[in-house]
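Each field is listed here:
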Amino acid sequence: MASRQQPASSGSEGDPRYAMFDEKKRKRMISNRESARRSRMRKQQHVDELLNQANQLKNENSLYAEKIDATSQMYLTVASENNVLRAQAAELTDRLRSLNSVIEIVAVANGLAVDIPEIPDTLMEPWQLPCPIQPITASATNMFQY
């Protein structure tokens, strides 16, 4: 049987000076691996936190969009009611003017002195001016989509 020969040594296996160098290198590699593992864990934790924050912000955004839609709907309802009230006020003002004209004609025909109060002019009382209607054309959900 042929005996096996061991490969030629590089000279560092038996020399104690190199053994200490190899041990330091091995410890440094272990330390670097552990440091890299901790770094990966921190990075993954940070990514998880960012994903949670993004989900939370999306949920808040949805809630705000719903609130805006509800408020817009209430605004449209109130604006519609205001239009009806303005139309009714204009009709009642016309009726009052007509009735005042009839009273004035009857008073003149009978020779009576009747004091008919004047209908207020909206130009003299600006707080009674009708407000222009500006409809909302876009819904809140369309406004927040990217």
